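dumping this here so i dont lose it
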């Protein structure tokens, strides 16, 4: 560990969250059969192997390397939409003919090299976040832990092997998803001034997020004190993540709605906040 990492415990914690979820994914993948690698995930068009290939590709890019040298991406991939989708697909498509264990070996290698690079990274150095804004590398590693943890869960659901739901990466995911809730409630779901929505997570770690719509029609995170919420949406953590990450539709999961059911249904229909 470098002096920079010792001097910035937040950066150290975010790197540790990223490392833990990637190592958890590696340990899971080490148990896969040939059939497991080909299982479809909730990411459109991506198998379990494709998701692992994506992790390899992104971390390779972050090392400043080409994740798919000379690869030409086909034009007839219906699940690929927009420039961002095409950029992310290159490293995935280039590995579709590569056996899963070889992709896993790449992930082990790129993780080791990324951790070595992060050990000498200035936590305050600015870089572009997936949101398009400039952030410090400390904040950027929250995004990396979030992305890797969500994809670990994609793989776990596809393989039928749940786990690591309360990992440090889950807390990074909570931090990334939380700021999008006011937009969901006020703008997308059209909650009226004075209305509020509580998002109650039942397990594995109970918690509640509150969004209040002000007189100006803007939503904001609130502490939940005062009047009872207009609507309360209760669900487990995995369900919340699947909805917020656009992995499923509200009809696919169990959510309890208390209070204004119509508003609750609108919020659930627009809960996906990831790109």
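and the seq i came up w/
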């Amino acid at each position: 560990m470098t002096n920079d990492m010792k001097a910035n415990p937040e950066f150290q914690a975010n790197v540790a969250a990223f490392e833990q979820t990637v190592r958890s994914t590696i340990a899971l993948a080490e148990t896969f059969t040939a059939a497991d690698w080909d299982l479809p995930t909730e990411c459109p068009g991506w198998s379990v192997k494709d998701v692992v290939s994506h992790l390899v590709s992104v971390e390779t890019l972050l090392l400043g390397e080409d994740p798919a040298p000379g690869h030409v991406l086909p034009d007839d991939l219906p699940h690929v939409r927009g420039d961002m989708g095409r950029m992310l697909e290159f490293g995935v498509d280039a590995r579709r003919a590569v056996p899963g264990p070889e992709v896993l070996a790449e992930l082990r290698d790129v993780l080791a090299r990324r951790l070595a690079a992060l050990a000498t990274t200035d936590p305050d150095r600015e870089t572009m976040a997936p949101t398009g804004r400039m952030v410090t590398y400390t904040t950027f590693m929250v995004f990396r832990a979030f992305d890797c943890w969500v994809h670990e869960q994609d793989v776990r659901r596809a393989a039928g092997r749940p786990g690591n739901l309360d990992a440090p990466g889950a807390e990074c995911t909570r931090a990334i998803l939380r700021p999008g809730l006011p937009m969901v409630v006020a703008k997308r779901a059209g909650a009226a001034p004075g209305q509020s929505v509580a998002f109650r997570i039942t397990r594995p770690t109970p918690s509640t997020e509150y969004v209040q719509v002000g007189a100006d029609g803007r939503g904001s995170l609130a502490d939940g004190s005062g009047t009872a919420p207009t609507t309360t949406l209760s669900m487990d953590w995995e369900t919340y993540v699947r909805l917020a990450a656009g992995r499923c539709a509200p009809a696919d999961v169990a959510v309890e709605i208390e209070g204004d059911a119509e508003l609750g249904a609108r919020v659930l229909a627009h809960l996906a906040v990831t790109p």
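The chain has two domains: 3-164, 176-269.
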